[in-house]
Amino acid sequence: MERSVSRELRLLGTWTKGIPSSVSDPKEVEARRRHNRRLVKDALQTTRADFLLAGNLDFLGADIVNVALEAGTPVLHALGNTAPGYAPQEQPVSPRYRIGSCSQWNASMVIKNGYSVRTEVLYPGARVDRFFRFFLPERGRLRICFAGLVMPFKGVHILVEALAKLHQAGIDFTAEIAGETTDPQFLANLHDFARKTGMADKIKYTGFLDRKALSALFARSNVLVFPSLVEEGFGISHVEALAAGLVVVSSGTGGAREIIRDEVDGLLYPSENVQMLAEKLHALATKPELFATLQAASQRRASEFAVEHSVHKIEQCMEELIAMS
């Protein structure tokens, strides 16, 4: 796809170790904004675009949207953050502009943050076909995995503390924790805790995994734990794990709660509650009928968030906006 990609937009800031930093020179900011407006205008004319699908506008602002609207091109803005990348007073007022929020929760936060743009729920489409397993994972013992940033706000320490309770209760399990960290001390503390509780040999840290390796991780696991402490816009790993036949045990923060229905197609527990997470995992280890029921339901639930549904919703919005213009 690289031949079809232009990387010429100039951001008005950057991220350094997760911390945003804006360009401070007003002249440089204006020069970059002029460059971006001209680039988008030329692209719209060259491609004769009928429609613009926008993504993350952080450090770009509303300029791209406004240029398209001025050219008569409707815009659907797919949004995964709780703010669209510009201030409420800068929001485009055209009826040909619509936000596609990644969840019901995300849409409610957009409204709460002072934006009045018409918003649709546009769930991110998961490639269910790439993670689907014809044979469900074996349930002999818990093979638990985590996939995400290994950082405090993702709740990895909550998972490790819950695993310690399983270990103390004599439950047989293995755990793989996949993901990178920008906090080496946090990772060192997790290793140290596992050693002190005598379960270091049960927990493996795999580091960053690409999508193919993530699929392989799910293929050798039977439970995904999602212990996030922060409100998540959605939770694509939930859907991918469900497609692979895993039971998802989630803190259900933000939009993630729209994926998992407790004891229907997964398990939910209160965020930060180590004891409740341990109890949910203990139930899977000791109630094979519950494990089997949730596994059977997981793949059916994943299919409801397949990429085909998202494509259909995008096309529906496109048709409405194009007809309007």
Short recap of the structure:
By secondary structure, the chain is an alpha/beta fold. 41% of the residues lie in helices and 16% in strands.
Key phrases:
alpha/beta, Rossmann fold, 2 domains, 6-stranded parallel sheet, 4-stranded parallel sheet, 11 helices
Plain-language structure description:
The protein is of the alpha/beta class and 325 residues long. The protein folds into 2 domains: 142 residues, 3-Layer(aba) Sandwich (Rossmann fold); 176 residues, Glycogen Phosphorylase B (Rossmann fold). 41% of the residues lie in helices and 16% in strands. It is built from 11 helices and 12 strands. Helix 1 packs across helix 2 and helix 5 crosses helix 9. The mean pLDDT is 94.
Q: Total number of β-strand segments?
A: 12
Which topology of the largest domain does CATH recognise? Rossmann fold
* CA gyration radius, whole angstroms: 22 Å
Largest beta sheet: strand ordering: 9-8-7-10-11-12
Domains (count): 2
Any idea what the shape is?
A: globular
Unreliable segments of 5+ consecutive residues: none
Largest sheet: 6 strands, parallel
Topology, please?
Elements (H helix, E strand, L loop, with lengths): L12 E4 L2 E4 L3 H22 L4 E3 L8 H8 L4 E5 L17 E5 L2 H9 L6 E3 L6 H4 L10 E6 L8 H13 L4 E6 L5 H13 L6 E5 L3 H9 L3 E4 L9 H8 L3 E4 L16 E2 L5 H13 L1 H16 L3 H18 L1
